[in-house]
Design a protein that fits this description.
32% of the residues lie in helices and 20% in strands. The protein is built from 24 helices and 36 strands. Strands 29-28-30-31-36-35-34-32-33 form a nine-stranded mixed β-sheet, with helices on both faces. Bound molecules: zinc ion (ZN). Zinc ion is lined by residues 135, 138, 251.
Length: 846
């Protein structure tokens, strides 16, 4: 009792929350609410919108609703990198929830063309997924999910009963929990009790790298195709588990905008998505119109956004027979902000997100039969379309890299694509597809449209502007050879075992009894991991700068540039220990290691040749923080950390004047870091002593500006447009950009930066139109754009001309390496990662 008195006394002087938000502000007043369900205020101690919910608070509220309400269950589908739960609060009538598994199976029958005509659509509920905040700092999204969940579990009376009887609703309250946690921590810790709406306020300058992205600073709204992160792997598996008819994607846009809902720009829809998808989106839009009119909020449609790139949350459902809908609320990124049109408050933003969530639900139930029928038709049509399409299947192979091949198969299988082993060897366009390492994907399967979006190169477009990239041909990003099969007759006898039967990858040590040295080639994706693991154990390794071959009782093999050689003698471990370590590394990295009994080779140089160069273990420092590109740095960090298990020390630009660089031998510059003169001198001195500098993308301008590299650009193309209308100026400019397309580069396979490549033409990803002239020293251009470089995607003719023959990678004096374009794009460019890793491992021998 004494404690309570004390608290009451204190509260007179300490205001706990100032921006009082009334619960009436949000929730519809035409129904009553069950008092046994805790309101957000009862649970959190404040109204929604007064503070930003952290992810843990949000999650525990969802669990509480599942515990107390007979209308809700929680289903976890994954964990983020930082271990935060990802899942759905599944809400429906108690009767539906009792039969949930049965309803789910019955629902999935709609996407099975052979059985879907049996489905009794009239008596089936519609499945609606509401997805919030794939960008962690778009907080009105996640915070509104709490109100939606409360409304659906506490709402009493016929209206709610009717809704829940006809719908199974999956609330995904936070699609990017780690980003949400970072952002909420920032805006809460900078919040004043008296909200300060001054846009200059620190509250609105979220610290680098911000909460938009996940743990490794990836945009999760681009990973739906790639499936490189646990958040998307779980989410996409859950998508197929439920196959919702409507799938919403709630975002925020700039603070000065209003509210956007789809449909977006019609001419930019992905041509593989059927037209009725946009008609349904527009019909659902009539409900948003009515609901937003009722609260007086401004909105717009059919502008700015599109559904061309199907790897984002609003378009991925569209190419799977569902209706994906993008919502973009003007983002406060704080609690209250001055904008030209209004004083934008966090509660206002949340209310708009809540409002369109409710209009979506009303539309979903009203259009239930139409939506279910459209889903059924989508999959029935898939077979008819496949029968008419000239391509019947794709075969693919990668004879020189099992890791890349198996990862490609994993990504395809993650989208429920049926893959078979090739049953016999075939030749296509001069390429041998050997049964042992080739696969075949038939187009006559449920995901016909989606498969085409992954395999078809595209160079013709109905529109010349794009919200995101213009192409994503997956075999190209994996640098995997593939070819179409154009008749059913040709497919006869080609289909072998299904992918469920694939064996997992295993390493192999092919050795003689008492080896003199071990050898492994560099072509396997995980070869850098293997080398690092050995070097980290103190093992001395050398790299082959020339080719050679061996023949003995256990193998006969031609070894290419970049082969790693580990002599048995003069190592810090015994022969037996080395043997064990080699076996472990081969197993960990699924590579083949050869043991040989002599240093005398069959052809080419011997093992004691000066062309076997001793390698130092890379010790890597990367510039991070303000000025560095969080996307580029994040992609590099993710690659080292998750694939190769190699540590990279990330140091902020400000510390470069004082940090002792001597403990590192590789420096990565991505972006335009703000390093003072002392720091630049520090780098210059260290480089002259032997350190390798890798300029990556924008980092090359920084190298050039600070006279560390001499880089000359190809002059920008001039538009030949003689006149134009003011209203079109922005679109005209955009149409001259390269939104992200796939080009071809030519490699010098004998150059250390190209070690491990077995074919001299390589697909690469390029965004933007900047092009750099080759180095005047002809030996310093390991990778340059070919004479006919565009493989897939949009680029203007004059820009293609400029890109032709320009540099993709060049080398300057003192082991300074420029990688001008993205070798690590969205973690899916397995084909170009090796160039980056080569710069790290072999920069030292240039
Ligand atoms: Zn967003």
């Amino acid at each position: 009792m004494r404690i309570i008195t004390l608290l009451l006394a204190l509260s007179t002087f300490i205001p706990v929350a100032n921006a009082q938000v009334s619960p009436d502000y949000y929730l519809p007043k035409d129904i009553s609410y069950n008092t046994s369900i805790p309101t957000p205020k009862q649970f959190f101690g404040h109204e929604i919108g007064e503070w930003h919910l952290t992810h843990d608070k949000l999650y525990y509220y969802m669990l509480e609703l599942a515990r107390v309400s007979e209308r809700a269950v929680w289903e976890e589908y994954g964990r983020s990198y930082e271990g935060r739960p990802l899942g759905h609060l599944i809400i429906s009538s108690p009767e539906n929830l009792k039969n949930l598994e049965q309803l789910r199976i019955q629902h999935l029958q709609l996407s099975d063309p052979e059985n879907s005509s049996k489905s009794d659509i009239k008596n089936m509920p519609v499945f609606i997924k509401l997805g919030y905040g794939v960008h962690g700092n778009e907080s009105s999204a996640q915070n509104s999910s709490v109100l939606v969940a409360y409304y659906l579990t506490a709402g009493a009376g016929q209206k709610t009963d009717e809704l829940l009887r006809n719908a199974v609703i999956l609330i995904d309250p936070a699609l990017n929990p780690d980003g949400m946690q970072r952002h909420s921590t920032w805006v809460n810790f900078t919040k004043s009790l008296n909200n300060n709406p001054d846009p200059n306020s620190w509250e609105f300058s979220e610290t680098w790298p911000g909460g938009r992205t996940n743990h490794y600073w990836f945009d999760l709204n681009r990973d739906y195709i790639m499936l490189q992160h646990p958040e998307s792997i779980g989410r996409v598996a859950a998508f197929y588990r439920w196959r919702p008819n409507i799938n919403t994607d709630h975002h925020e846009q700039g603070a000065n905008a209003t509210f956007f809902y789809q449909p977006g720009i019609q001419s930019r829809n992905n041509p593989l998505t059927p037209p009725d998808n946009q008609e349904l989106t527009a019909e659902i839009g009539k409900y948003h119109e009515k609901y937003l009119n009722a609260i007086g909020s401004l909105y717009f449609t059919e502008e700015a956004y599109d559904d061309f790139y199907v790897g984002k949350g609003s378009a991925y459902p569209d190419i799977h027979g569902s209706v994906g809908i993008l919502y973009e609320q003007a983002g406060v990124k704080g609690h209250l902000k001055e904008t030209p049109g209004m004083l934008l408050s966090f509660p206002f933003a949340i209310r708009n997100q809540l409002t369109v969530s409710l209009s979506t639900l009303e539309a979903g139930v009203a259009m239930k039969e139409k939506l279910l029928e459209s889903h059924r038709k989508f999959y029935k049509d898939a077979f008819t379309l496949a029968d008419k399409h000239p391509v019947k299947a794709y075969v693919f192979t990668e004879p020189d890299d099992n890791n890349r091949l198996s990862e490609f198969v994993r990504v395809l299988a993650g989208h429920q694509i049926r893959i078979h082993k090739l049953a016999k060897d075939i030749n296509r366009n001069g390429v041998l597809y050997k049964a042992e390492n080739s696969f075949i994907v038939s187009l006559r399967q449920n995901e016909y449209r989606f498969i085409r979006s992954l395999f078809d190169p595209i160079k013709e477009f109905t529109d010349s502007t794009f919200y995101d990239v213009s192409t994503w041909v997956l075999p190209m990003s994996f640098n995997i050879q593939y070819a179409p099969i154009n008749s059913l007759k040709e497919m006869d006898g080609l289909t072998g075992a299904t992918h469920e039967e694939f064996p997992s990858l295993e390493g192999l040590v092919a050795t003689v009894a008492d080896p003199y040295a071990y050898l492994f080639e560099w072509n396997e994706y995980l070869a850098p991991k293997a080398l690092y693991e050995l070097q980290n154990a103190g093992i001395i390794a050398r790299v082959a700068a020339k080719e050679f071959s061996f023949s003995n009782s256990s193998f006969s093999h031609k070894f290419s540039f970049g082969t790693i050689m580990i002599p048995v003698a003069d190592q810090p471990v015994s022969k037996a220990e080395l043997g064990k370590l080699i076996e472990k590394v081969a197993r960990d990295c699924a590579i083949t290691v050869y043991g040989v009994s002599t240093g005398f080779t069959e052809t080419g140089m011997d093992l004691g040749s000066g062309n076997f160069i001793v390698l130092n273990k890379p010790s890597i420092v990367m510039i991070t923080g303000d000025g560095a590109s969080s996307t580029d740095v994040g992609e590099i960090w993710h690659m080292f950390d998750t694939r190769f298990r190699i540590p990279v020390t990330m140091v902020t630009a400000a510390r470069f004047g004082s940090v002792d660089l001597d403990r590192y031998n590789v420096l990565i510059v991505a972006g335009s870091p703000d390093i003072n003169q002392a720091g630049i001198e520090n780098i210059r001195v260290w480089n002259r002593k032997g350190g390798t500098v890798i300029g990556y993308k924008g980092g090359n301008s920084w190298l050039s500006r600070n006279k560390l590299a001499d880089i000359e650009n190809v002059p920008a193309a001039q538009s030949d447009r003689k006149e134009g209308k003011y209203v079109n100026r922005s679109l005209d400019n955009q149409a001259r950009q390269n939104p992200g397309s796939i080009f071809q580069v030519k490699l010098d396979l004998s150059h250390p930066l190209c070690y491990g490549y077995t074919r001299d033409l390589l697909p690469v990803f390029k965004t933007g139109t900047a092009a750099v002239k080759k180095n005047p020293d002809i030996y310093n251009n390991p990778a340059s754009y070919s004479s006919d470089p565009l493989l897939s995607g949009y680029c203007t003719k004059d820009n293609i001309e400029r890109i032709k023959g320009s540099a993709f990678v060049s080398v300057h004096d003192n082991r300074i390496i420029s990688i001008y374009d993205n070798t690590n794009f969205r973690a899916i460019w397995y084909g170009t990662n090796k160039i980056f890793m080569n710069a790290v491992f072999f920069g030292q021998i240039l």
